[in-house]
Amino acid sequence: MKRQVRCDLCPRQCVIPEGGAGDCRIRVNLEGRLRATTYGRPSAMHIDPVEKKPLFHFLPATSAFSIATAGCNLHCLNCQNWPLSQRDGTEMDRLFHAEPADVVAAAREEGCRSIAYTYSDPVVFYEYTYDTAELARQADLRNLMITAGYINREPLRRLCRVMDATNTDLKAFDDAFYRKVTTARLKPVLDALVTFREEGVWVEVTNLVIPTLNDDLAMIRRMARWIRDELGEGTPLHFSRFYPRYRMRNLPPTPAETLVRARKEALDAGLQFVYIGNVMGNPGENTYCPRDGTLLISRAGFRVTENHLTADGRCPKCNQKIPGVWQ
Amino acid sequence: MKSKFLHRHDWELLLLVIAMLVNLGGFLTQELGTAPREGAGWRRVDTEAVQRLIEAGDLSDHEALWYQPVAPSGTGKGR
Known about the structure:
By secondary structure, chain A is α/β, with parallel strands linked by helices.
């Protein structure tokens, strides 16, 4: 008899027959038991500056040992990592053997301060993320979850016990956009962001601005107000530049002026730290004191070029406390 | 004796056309079976390949968290 299971990890709640996989491609029902087939088998391992995640208020100028496996529970038409995220384990050219203890040992050996679960989405390699993060904590490493936030509340609450920071993609403040471009829904992502905040995880948000699809300033204003009200005015928001990729090659890269306008809109809505990403040399890459405008951290791409914050994360001129994890 | 309708090379051509149609049909059936469709809930995978890679140690059979058995109905066709 065919033994089917229901995966309760993410809002899709796939009902998976024996021999099938979840929508994420990597959680496979073998003989009535759901297997996390990429556990300990990452297909990407790199050392990145934490600014690349992007996390701008979390241990600046440190390195994050970054891992990812195949699979994803979103299917964004513009995915930048589609050769990794839109494939299953059998389709991978590279499958490293790296059990959680191996990842932690490698991160320490390379002098990293944190481990980032990233590139595809750690939601789908949940068990590997959790076990690695638990060991990392014991080894005095921090854990970073770079995610689309499409996960059910209880699994996320449990994962938050071992997470220190997240950059969560808020792809648009519009459910129709989510359905059309990502095949997911907006509300669970908003719920995940609130859960991260409630559980004490440091939260930064990224919004990839795609010309004509989610660059409406009124929508950006609504999103910024929601972040201000639900996550706090000190939550960093990153507006990132879109480049044509995967199945969305018909649109041009986001003009820099669009990102500048989005940043102004979010600052006017009351957010204190709004950044522009993927545009080199824009002042929107820097951190300024929200009280007196002092330049606190200067960046060029993923590189910190100046850091004037005090050791405990304050403005050196007015002593304003800057939200973040600085040491 | 010559056929009234088809010469030998006509038969060869006809067989070639039939073979191509069979191949094309097989390809379309296979591709349509795996084409992504929104909201189908689960996907077909090459279970034999998964098992083979697990046995070789290249994939894992680590048991997942957050799932439960359900009665066998309503899974749809998969993608």
